[in-house]
Structures are given as C-alpha cells and as structure tokens.
Amino acid sequence: MVSRIDEQPRATRANGQTNRPRLIVLGDSITAHITSDLQRALQQHGSNLRVDNRAVGGSAISYNRSDRNWLRDGPMIAAGIRPGDVVLFNIGHNDFYTMGKRAGWDNQFLHRNPGYMNKATFLQHYENLIREFQNNGARVIVAGPVPYLRPNAGAAPFLETHHQAALDRIPELSRELENLSKRLNVQFIPSLDNRALHDKSSRVPDGLHLNAEGMRIFSQQIASNLVNPTPRPAAIAAATPSSTPTTKPFVMHRHNSA
Question: Around 246, how many Cα atoms within 13 Å sit in the side-chain half-sphere?
C-alpha cells in the first residue's frame, strides 16, 4: 500500500527531537530513499536540520492520483510548518515525463487524461505550492531535475527508445524551474550541473533512478548548497519553439514513474 504524501513518516513521529527545525523533502522516487544520506551530509556540513522525508514514488503536482498528489496534500504539510523549517522541492519528474514537447510543451495531453496538464499549468501549480509554504514561514529550496542517462541495454527498453527526447527536454525543465525560483526569490540547486550525476556509476540500470552512490552525491550537493548557497547568474532564457529541437513525444508509463 502506498502512503498518502501528507502522512508523517513513522520514524519522524518516533523521533524525540521534535524541537529541531526540519528539512522537509517533497519528492518522488528520486529522493524517496535519500533520508540517511541526506541527514549524514547535513551533519557533515554543520547543519542541525532534521530530515523529514515526505517523498513518495510516483508523486506529481499536475495530474490526479488519489494518493500521490502534491497540489492537494502539500498545503496540509505547509500548515504544519514550524519556525526554522526548510522545505526542499525535488518534484516534477513524473509531471515532466507526461508532457508533450512540441511548441514548448503545448496542450498535448499524452495520456488522454484530463488530470494531466501542459507546461503553463504545471508551472502555475508549482508556484502556488511554493507560495503556500512561503506564506507559512518556510524557507524554500528547489532542486532541479536530475540528469537522465541512457539505460543499460535491455534494462528499460521503453526509456532507451525515447532517450534523446528526454535529454532534449530535461534542460528546458531545469531552466523553467530556475527562472521560477528567481522570480519567487527561492534558492535553486542546479542538479544538472553536478557532473558526478552524469556518471553511470551513480545510477541503477534504468538510467534515471539513483543508486547508493548517486544518493550520496546528490545529498552532498543539497547539503552544501543549503549551508553555503552558491550565487547563480541572472535568469536564463527559456527555450522557444524555434530554438527547440523537434523530437517525438516522450512518455513514461506509470510503472516507470519516478
């Protein structure tokens, strides 16, 4: 059974150190198992934040899944924000893999499901959720999407078929989220800039999910940027239809969801 994403993890409820400020992780399967590595990395960088990992595999912000919808359940988590809490967003992978590429993610609802959204709606939902946490006093950090690598032969045939389309689109998603973060005065962590995450030694065979080494690398990047924010350049121009390569739409079936 998959837990609702507004449910507090049992390990967090049992932790007696309730007065420590938290790093609340909103994520999907990329960060669902990162708790121990992230807690260790925070301690190594001198942070006293306690990791409260709410990440759930398959969760998204712009389509309807009764047990994995951030737009619905996020505000319930935001209502429980306490002084000193930090919220890390690493969501959007599953939304992104369901949206069309043509004309800059236009109204191509690839799953024929009215719950799936286009780019504009996705970004509006993302902004609404960030503001929900800001309005409740949280410091918000957005970690951009992790790079997608070619799967090992035979490990994920569907992903391998659409590898180039995914490579073309992930930088665009990262640029859009960075520009949104700048506009909302939110710190952005550029996961795509982490060269170690471009190495296959950081991944399981599907080329998308992080293995133990990948989680350690990503945790170190998050903790380092949280404690010592690195200035980023001015907002980057988003890709336009004229400058965007033409590719076939990339669709991730739900059983491959992050």
Answer: 1
